[in-house]
Amino acid sequence: MTDELKPAYLIAGSDRPKIDRAVERLRRRFAPDAIELHHAAETTGESAVAACNALGLFAGDGRLIVVDGVEEWKAPDAKEIAAYLKAPTPATTLALVGGELKKDSPLAKAVSGGKGELLLWDVPQRGLQKWVSEQFTLHQTKADAEACRTLLHLVGDDVYDLASEIDKVSTWAAGDAVTAADVERLVAARAETTNFALTDAWGARDVAGVLEASEGMLERSGDPRSKTIPRVAAILTSHVSRIARAKALDSQGVTAKDAASALRQHPFYVGKLYAQARNFEPDELRRITVRLAGLDHALKGGSRLAPELELERALVDITAPRQ
């Protein structure tokens, strides 16, 4: 944004942390009592225009009207904004904030075709690691590629969560370089990524680690164990299937980097699959697949033993090194 403010800005995209920073910079240019906050779910385009026009003669140093969630607006709302921007109220800035919007959307056309400006920032999923690196740079912190990959592995692709962890890690680093080991020590895996503790322990053939991870999942899930135990079994079954495919690709001379596209997984994750696959022989993976099918049958009424005991026995069977 230039020093001379435009009558309207459309600030949108999937890079919500960047959007939030832009909105905050804009808000700092106005007195607190000169800012009005609205949400598109409760405010139409017509209402937003009315807010801009209200008390326009008494704007003083300027007024800021912020409407969030404008991706919900329809064509009639965009039409109201387009009409308003033909003769916008002096000393009033309208900030339209939203999620992902295309440049050819009705609202984007209304703003860009008038006297407003488009600020559209998206985070491409394939470029998420680069985005993480750029966020560390903004915090004046150097993080190597492995550290960025590890952060994505632990946190997932939610940019708000990533931004929060980057801020925390950067503050801890205090200007020093950040390594993957630092990230692993400082960042806890999100709820949806805690299954990696289970699959990593299995891939390392760590019986105690597998049992500990599965018990932790049962305790933290919040669901009855009758629902969580089959979920744990399903996670392992899916993981073993990926390991078997990675094993086959590795035997064909396909690198982990090239296999990432075939498996439709993040390269960092595929690298772990390759490393774990080397701990198992093909016939072992087939035996483990059969054992997990037996566990599934037992959990669906094929056994008189308690589900917890069936799961524990199966985990030991598929993890322990073959004698």
Task: Describe the model.
This protein is an alpha/beta fold. Helix content is 57%, strand content 8%. It has a 5-stranded parallel sheet with strand order 2-3-4-1-5, sandwiched between helices. α6 runs parallel beside α8. The N and C termini lie far apart (67 Å).
* Average residue pLDDT: 87
Strand order of the largest sheet: 2-3-4-1-5
Count of discrete alpha- or pi-helical segments spanning 4 or more residues: 15
Can you tell me the overall shape? elongated
Number of DSSP strand runs: 5
Tell me the β content. Answer: 5-15%
Low-confidence stretches: none
What string, H for helix and E for strand, traces the elements in order?
EHEHEHEHEHHHHHHHHHHH
Number of domains: 3
* Helix vs. strand class: alpha/beta
Can you identify the CATH class of the largest domain?
Answer: Mainly Alpha
Helical content band: 55-70%
User: Looking at CATH, which topology of the largest domain would you report?
Assistant: Zinc Finger, Delta Prime, domain 3
Rg over CA atoms: 26 Å
The separation of the N and C termini measures 67 Å
